[in-house]
Design goal:
By secondary structure, this protein is an alpha/beta fold. The protein contains 11 helices and 6 strands. It is globular and about 60 Å long.
Length: 219
């Protein structure tokens, strides 16, 4: 009954074996080594090999993200799940000034809630507006709310802000595809999963995979 379980593997060993199996079962589809590390991490997170089919890298996002984290730029997330999931210890390997407070999320902010109610908009959209100064020059992770992504693109187009990197993985059925199509029209470095798929765990996994690329380069 229990003989098919591999009992004598530590956590790191399980990850290494998982990566080995992913490598054996997946076609890289023309992804370079850096892009493949992101794709592999997302497959590892979901156990879904087809995610490679809709994963897009535009405007050199991996190197843009690495350089931004070296500078210690602020990070904005559209969900507290993302904020909690990002490893501060890993961020500090890029820049020792990073703390948990370097990662922002306004979804539960009272001022944002009041604005959302008064204007009949989502808190995600109200939050992205409040976060404009953070997003301008910073890293924006969107793993939940498509209106947060659409609002960010609107500020890029109409107000001239310039995020260092956007990881765009909102999920759902309303405004999701449309927000990702908007992102395609701007030249900001970004990683996205086209279509309805996404989620906060994937956004976190993508950022961690970018970090891993830097760690590998550093030896």
């Amino acid at each position: 009954m229990f003989d098919k379980i591999i009992w004598n593997l530590p956590g790191m060993g399980i990850e290494e074996e998982s990566f080995r199996r992913i490598e054996a079962e997946t076609d890289r589809q023309g992804l370079n080594d850096e892009e493949w590390r992101v794709a592999r991490r997302l497959i590892h997170t979901t156990a879904d090999f087809s995610i490679v089919d809709t994963l897009c890298f535009r405007h050199n996002p991996i190197q843009a993200g690495i350089e931004a984290m070296k500078q210690g730029v602020s990070i904005y997330s559209d969900s507290n799940m993302i904020r909690s999931g990002i490893s501060v210890a890993k961020l500090q390997r890029f820049n020792s000034a990073y703390t948990r407070d370097s990662i922002h999320c306004y979804i539960a902010d009272p001022e944002v809630a009041a604005i959302a109610k008064a204007e009949n908009i989502t808190r995600a959209l109200a939050g992205i507006r409040k976060a404009k100064a953070i997003i301008n020059g910073g890293i924006f992770l969107c793993g939940n709310a498509p209106l947060a992504l659409a609002g960010a693109v609107k500020m890029i187009v109409e107000e001239g802000i310039r995020p260092a990197l956007i990881i765009a993985m909102p999920v759902g059925f309303v405004n999701v595809v449309e927000s990702k199509e908007l992102l395609r029209e701007v030249d900001v470095p970004h990683i996205t999963i086209e279509g309805r798929r996404g989620g906060s765990p994937l956004a976190v996994a993508a950022l961690h995979a970018i970090m891993e690329t830097f760690f590998i380069e550093q030896g």
